[in-house]
Write a structure and sequence with these properties.
It contains 3 helices and no strands. The protein has about 80 residues and is mainly α. InterPro entries: SLC26A/SulP_dom (IPR011547), SLC26A/SulP_fam (IPR001902).
Length: about 80
Amino acid sequence: DVQRVGAAAALAFGSGALMLGMFALQLGVLSTFLSEPVVKALTSGAALHVLVSQLPSLLGLPLPRQIGCFALFKTLAAVLTAL
């Protein structure tokens, strides 16, 4: 569990450092090349991923954590069969 916390902290620090670097180099202009539908799709995909991965906890189902390729779909299938 300590390793996961360390990995999350390292990821957060790396993301912040990347953002600060982009700010310092004034690379925010690159975001204008991303169209609004692309940004909306990425945001919706991230929200869906968080929702499905939290479903077992929200519903109180004691399901094992899925890992690997298509883990999101495996989690959704496990939740639906457990209901």
